[in-house]
């Protein structure tokens, strides 16, 4: 069979068009604990120099991340040019778990800097795509600080939110077939801290149950849930009855990953949780990712002029939704630094098949 030049061009365009429609990638970044810390002053003007260094370098990296090359050791190819957003899993600043003295002024300075650096919906900051943050213990252990109140206000204007909790703090959104839920400090019942435990859950469990019933039900659509604390923490931090209720709520759904911050611990790590134990590989285990911290560096008080906490990391995540009978896939890659983001490396890759029902309806305009 012979092809003339026009036929070849037509065939090439058809194949390119067909291949481009054969899969949809939902690509995003998961980070945690930028933990902005200012100089200790009643009128702070600058950040701690190592906090400044870490966060400024991180933002520069994220600003040029789209389209950058991925080494063959982490799967090859390139970062998606259309990153959908960045999740920030708590501890946005450092000082809101402290009271008195210089701390109120430091809190304001640190929070204003976070907002001016991160922006909100890809505007007003240095992040070129939407931001989806939640609060951690350094933002207010009981979820009652001015920072938490401002997160609630930001949630009203946050791009794509489809559901908010009654108190406005927890929220969910859709990226195509993928449903994502941000649940604050941890997943637990009730608004306030219970006796014998550490943190206030602010009604996150009730919101999770309501949101899954409303937006997921028995559709089988993939779900991602983020919070600040690691679920394999002490019962003082995450009560066992809340942990059990959390698993009972999600085990019947297609939860492809849980993301948390808090523990730092470079590089990023993955565990599995099956409701009774945590381990590297468990029957019916759900993947739990510690996404490391993006900027929690500061001056060592015991050795002025020297830094602590200069190892950092974040995750680049892709959910690949393929048409027809082709296997859908979930891919998580970690990026890490040992020198406060002076340099960085692609560190690890985790891949697994997932099931995305073909009848999942994509939101209009997606």
Q: What are its keywords?
A:
globular; 366 residues; Purple Acid Phosphatase, chain A, domain 2; 16 strands; 6 helices; alpha/beta
| Total domain modules | 1
What overall form do the CA principal axes indicate? globular
CATH class: Alpha Beta
Uncertain regions spanning at least 5 consecutive residues: 6-20, 362-366
Strand tally is 16
CATH topology: Purple Acid Phosphatase, chain A, domain 2
CATH homologous superfamily assignment: Metallo-dependent phosphatases
Rounded mean pLDDT is 92
Q: Roughly how many Å is the radius of gyration?
A: 21 Å
Protein model, in words:
- This protein has 366 residues and is of the alpha/beta class.
- The chain has a single domain (23-354), classed as Purple Acid Phosphatase, chain A, domain 2 (4-Layer Sandwich), CATH 3.60.21.10.
- 23% of the residues lie in helices and 24% in strands.
- It has 6 helices and 16 strands.
- An 8-stranded mixed β-sheet has the order 4-5-6-7-8-11-9-10.
- A hairpin with a 7-residue loop joins strand 12 (298-299) and strand 13.
- The longest helix is centred in the first third of the chain and has 17 residues, at 5-21.
- It is globular and about 60 Å long.
- Residues 6-20 and 362-366 have low confidence and may be disordered.
């Amino acid at each position: 069979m012979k092809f003339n030049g026009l036929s070849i061009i037509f065939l090439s365009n058809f194949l390119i068009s067909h291949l481009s429609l054969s899969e949809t990638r939902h690509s995003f970044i998961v980070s945690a604990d930028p933990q902005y810390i200012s100089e200790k002053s009643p009128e702070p003007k600058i950040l701690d120099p190592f906090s400044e260094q870490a966060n400024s370098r991180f933002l520069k990296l994220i600003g040029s991340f789209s389209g950058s090359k991925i080494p063959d050791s982490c799967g090859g190819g390139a970062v998606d040019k259309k990153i959908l957003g960045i999740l920030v899993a708590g501890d946005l600043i450092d000082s809101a778990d402290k009271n008195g003295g210089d701390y109120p002024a430091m809190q304001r300075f640190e929070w204003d800097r976070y907002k001016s650096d991160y922006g909100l919906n890809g505007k007003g900051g240095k992040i070129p795509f939407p931001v989806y943050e939640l609060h951690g213990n350094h933002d207010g252990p009981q979820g009652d600080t001015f920072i938490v109140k401002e997160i609630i206000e930001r949630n009203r204007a946050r791009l794509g939110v489809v559901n908010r909790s009654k108190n406005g703090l927890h929220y969910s959104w859709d990226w195509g077939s993928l449903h994502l839920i941000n649940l604050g400090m941890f997943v637990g019942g009730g608004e306030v801290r219970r006796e014998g435990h550490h943190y206030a859950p602010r009604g996150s469990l009730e919101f999770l149950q309501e949101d899954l019933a409303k937006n997921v039900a028995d559709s089988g659509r993939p779900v991602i849930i983020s919070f600040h604390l690691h679920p394999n923490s002490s019962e003082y931090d995450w009560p066992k009855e809340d942990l059990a209720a959390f698993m009972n709520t999600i085990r019947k759904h297609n939860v492809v990953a849980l993301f948390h911050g808090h523990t730092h611990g470079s590089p990023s790590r993955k565990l599995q949780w099956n409701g009774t134990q945590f381990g590297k590989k468990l029957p019916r285990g759900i993947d739990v990712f510690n996404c490391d911290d993006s900027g929690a560096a500061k001056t060592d008080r015991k050795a002025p002029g020297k830094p602590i906490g200069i190892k950092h990391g974040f995750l680049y995540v892709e959910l690949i939704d393929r048409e027809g009978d082709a296997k859908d896939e979930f891919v998580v890659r970690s990026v890490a630094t040992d020198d406060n983001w002076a340099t960085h490396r692609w560190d690890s890759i985790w891949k697994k098949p997932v099931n995305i029902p073909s009848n999942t309806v994509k939101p209009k305009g997606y």
